[in-house]
Amino acid sequence: MAWGKARRAAFYALTLPLAGAALAASVGPVLARSERAESASYDWQHVRVGGGGFTPGIIFSPIEKGLAYLRSDMGGAYRWDAKAERWVQLLDGVSEGSFMGIESVAADPVDAGTVYLAAGMHKGGAAAIFRSRDYGANWARSDVPFAMGGNEDGRGLGERLAIDPSDNQRLFFGSRHQGLWQSEDAGANWRKVDAFPLEGLGIPEGRRATHGGLSFVVFDPAVKGRVFVGNADPEGAHLYRSEDGGQTWQAVAGGPGRGLLAVKAVVGSDHVLTVTLCDAIGPNGITRGAVWRFDPARESWQDVTPQKGLNAPVGGYMGVAVSAQDPATLAVSTVDRGNPVDTVWLSHDAGAHWEALWTRSVRDVSATPFLDFGAKANFGHWIAGLAIDPYDAGHAAYVTGATVYATDELDADGTMHWQPWTKGVEQTAIITMVSPTGGAHLISGFGDIGGFRHDDFAVSPATQHVNPFLSNTNTLDYAGDAPQILVRSGNTHARTVPDTSLAWSQDGGTNWMPLYVPEGERHADGSPLPEETGNAAITVSADGSTFLVETDEPQYSRDHGASWDAVEGLPSRVRVTSDKRDARRFYAIDFANNRIVRSYDGGAHFMEAGGHGLPGDLSPAYSANREAPAPILADPNRAGNLWLQLGGDLWHSPDFGENWDRTGGDLDVERYGLGKGASDADVPALYALGTKQGVRAIWRSLDGGANWQRINDDKHQWGLRIRMVTGDPRLFGRVYIATDGRGIVYGDPKSGAGERK
Hints:
By secondary structure, the protein is mainly beta.
């Protein structure tokens, strides 16, 4: 963007005086000297996709050109670096996963370097206010007594956190469940505002239950003491106002009718407040909405809804922005309006007339081509965030459920061009991935956007997994001796998969072909069988000749899905692991009979393996989650060399599952994977997410699990929201980490940190 080329004044020399607990002291135990001696230094980078998830809030600094912040629902917060022309992640140093869900962001209206984050994923998780005086380079953290919901329904509301421009040490936070809160010492300490009329509805029971609560706090910077608070709960007024800095409050009478909730607001230089309203807190389930303006000078409301009446399309309004140069220039976004499409509406006369921008807009998604989703990218959905640059009336941005779009032509006539504004943003959930023994070094399975073959980690892949396109890829496998052959399973967001949930590739994941398993009997309650829902995983033999599908009645095919036969001796709904060097052998756990089973004939028959040395209870390895990694992994470079996770323990068999020994040392393992071993080792490198001596981190072992080195550091933790860890069978030291919200991270040893044990 042209505006991003302006150089920002140097500020990186600023030092943060900590008003509370320092971040370094809050994200996990400080490593002891002995632990540091057992670490290996790594360089960390992201596999580029670009955007990919929901970032419901865009916040421009009101006092520094080229400065903006972006909040995400599960991947932390970002600052736009105008000099580098990319987004910079601000919270990769936290180890508490809940803090990666950002409820609100506040950019200081007095000191450009000061920024605050309200962080908390859900009502049962940790919640805190983070504050920085150096643009997010360093943070202080204050744990707070009110619950947040950065990844709950209503995450598009806001901004809930606001700074008083007449006294930037004073902040207000509108909570979901517990009323209005105030800090008078720059966010270090918080107290409830007892004078505020709404107490809050309390924290609801139930895993998914939540409230909208106090949806926004907005100061009028030109009127000292004036502050507005919106209400997105069904009881009480839509809007509350204080003229004395929050000492006293009044409900604003009149305005929108009952049944609508105030969700977002912005105040213009004319002091008029524009409010968007919906009949639900979203981002789904909204059926109607409105846009109203409140003029404090006249104590009057005006309905300026772009489309209203009985014939108005289904859906509501959420995003709202006003031009700093002209308070009559307004923009609002629709949400859940699929017919004809969600859009941004623009007015140059304070809402008297509106234009739907989708009719003259085009989007260039060449930098992140997955946004086409097999067709041409439409205007978007879940448009909760919308902003106009206060220093450039032509520069505006809005969010969708998958990206952020920006334009430099908001104030121009003719065709309006939009591009993804996501360089540096990786906001995706990775379900599974494989690093094959040949072809591309990484094949991924994502939530919501399917997954990719990654030929160049610095470039967003040209295509997704299609034919069929499954929004979630749940399992992936490759043939160890024929790595161009891959198989995958997945599901859509519908209850049943429209066509098939299985596919295979013979060119390393570039192209896919659907697999169809013969339909068996339905469940007694009439519900679909796993192959119709995406619950059935699929495994391929080492030579690529056999596919084995773990349906209720497991089946195998020797002709790439043209025909299928029943597997004998294999229980239903278990994860099967193929030997990567011996095409005859497959392995699984028979939980009903508490034993390891294996096949010697390419998956046609399974029988008990020796299992000698294993504990009597194998149930810690069981998971009913279709996205869970397989508990048994096979060495990609040696036949019969197996690894098994039981709870936090690792077990190793060098002889096809006949005999097992506990390994893993003193590491309590959560996730693990295998990679290329050291040159003098007969075991693969092991990589794991686990806890050792109180330190939860990413670890590497080069001696079969007897000794472990920490390979990440306190600046690279990604909230430790990690679904999968795996090494590369061809590159010693390379590790891939599938995060839940920060995309795919990969690491390589720094010079001098190679094959040291």
